[in-house]
């Protein structure tokens, strides 16, 4: 059974206190999330520490198990003189640091930063992240025990020119084909057509299903039956009003949600769409 996932990508939104308010509102509603759906919140770096503590403090074990924490990027270098960068090791060190704060109860530990989004089209487009750079990042993240949400997707001109299969196929072959099956077990793929991100325009359920099936088939050619276990998420203007029909498609295992993840009510409503 593939894991159903609803992941929020907060992007560069919310101050730390607004982020804390948002996670508290999500936590307050988490009981409503179906048992087989996992929520992931991918917050800005500055928010990880306090949010790790808040998620770690969720008392009911059932509710706690339904939500995980993630980041939106990590460096393509391990350590050293790379001003402004945040390494995979730094991400994996957040949870244990929660217990070192003055006044923390003995043995306190936060929720681990378990996931990292890599390959988002905004990183590829605005920050020049190539497939080669992304492969470096993925290798470092996986070596640190993080799970990777690897994004792929085509631009509008590429879809119009019917090049979407080629573009997405290359993003998979040049990056994911370089991983071992063991590594691949910790990778989730997110298909996000660039023309649907933040535009209000969503891929139709047929368009989305078609390319999700293609992604699964491409993975199968290299990784065999592992492809059946890999969660493939849809992203791009996914919201409460369209989540149900997208998630009902055979090869769509959930969503990577941008704008609608910034309102607890919408984020939870999407998770309840299964
Ligand atoms: P959107 O963003 O839901 O605001 O379109 C999705 C994403 O970029 O991950």
**Mean pLDDT across all residues, rounded?**
96
Q: Please name the CATH topology.
A: TIM Barrel
Structural class: alpha/beta
- The total of helices stands at 14
What is the CA-based Rg, rounded?
18 Å
- Top-tier CATH class: Alpha Beta
Which range does the strand content fall in?
A: 15-25%
Helix content range: 40-55%
Give the name of the CATH architecture: Alpha-Beta Barrel
Shape, principal axes of CA atoms: globular
The CATH homologous superfamily is named Aldolase class I
Sequence stretches where pLDDT stays below 50 over 5 or more residues: none
List the helices and strands and how they pair.
Layout: E1 4-9, H1 16-28, E2 37-42, H2 45-56, H3 61-64, E3 67-71, H4 88-92, H5 94-98, E4 113-118, H6 121-127, H7 131-143, E5 147-152, H8 156-160, H9 164-173, H10 181-184, E6 187-191, H11 205-223, H12 226-229, E7 232-235, H13 240-247, E8 254-257, H14 264-271
Parallel strand pairs: 1-2, 1-8, 2-3, 3-4, 4-5, 5-6, 6-7, 7-8
Helix pairs in contact: 1-2, 1-14, 9-11, 13-14
What does this structure look like?
The structure is a single chain. This protein is α/β, with parallel strands linked by helices. The protein has a single domain (4-271), classed as TIM Barrel, CATH 3.20.20.70. Helix content is 43%, strand content 15%. It has 14 helices and eight strands. Strands 1-2-3-4-5-6-7-8 form an eight-stranded parallel β-barrel, surrounded by six helices. Helix 1 links the parallel strand 1 and strand 2 (37-42). Helix 13 packs parallel to helix 14. The longest helix is centred in the last third of the chain and has 19 residues, at 205-223. The chain starts with a strand and ends with a helix. The relative contact order is 0.15. The model has no long low-confidence stretch (mean pLDDT 96). 2-phosphoglycolic acid binds at residues 9, 192, 197-198, 235-238, 256-260.
């Amino acid at each position: 059974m593939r894991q159903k996932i609803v992941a929020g990508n907060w992007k560069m939104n919310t101050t730390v206190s607004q982020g804390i308010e948002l996670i508290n509102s999500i936590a307050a509603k988490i009981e409503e999330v179906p048992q087989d759906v996992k929520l992931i919140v991918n917050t800005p770096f500055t928010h990880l520490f306090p949010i790790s503590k808040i998620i770690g403090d969720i008392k009911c074990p059932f509710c706690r198990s339904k939500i995980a924490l993630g980041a939106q990027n990590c460096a393509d270098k391990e350590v050293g003189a790379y001003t402004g960068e945040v390494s995979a090791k730094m991400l994996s060190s957040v949870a244990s640091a929660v217990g070192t704060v003055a006044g923390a109860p003995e043995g306190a530990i936060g929720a681990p930063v378990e996931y990292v989004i890599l390959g988002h089209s905004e990183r590829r487009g605005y920050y020049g992240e190539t497939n080669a750079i992304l492969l470096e990042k993925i290798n470092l993240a996986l070596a640190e025990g993080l799970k990777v949400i690897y994004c792929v997707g085509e631009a509008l001109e590429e879809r119009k020119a019917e090049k979407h299969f080629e573009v997405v196929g290359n993003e998979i072959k040049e990056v994911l084909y370089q991983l071992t099956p063991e590594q691949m077990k910790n990778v989730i793929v997110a298909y996000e057509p660039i023309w649907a991100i933040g535009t209000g325009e969503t891929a139709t359920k047929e368009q989305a299903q078609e390319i999700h099936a293609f992604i699964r088939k491409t993975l199968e050619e290299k990784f065999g039956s592992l492809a059946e276990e890999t969660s493939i998420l849809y992203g791009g203007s996914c919201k409460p009003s369209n989540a149900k029909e997208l998630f009902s498609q055979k090869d769509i295992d959930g969503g990577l949600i941008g704008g609608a993840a910034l309102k607890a009510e919408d984020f939870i409503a999407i998770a309840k769409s299964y």
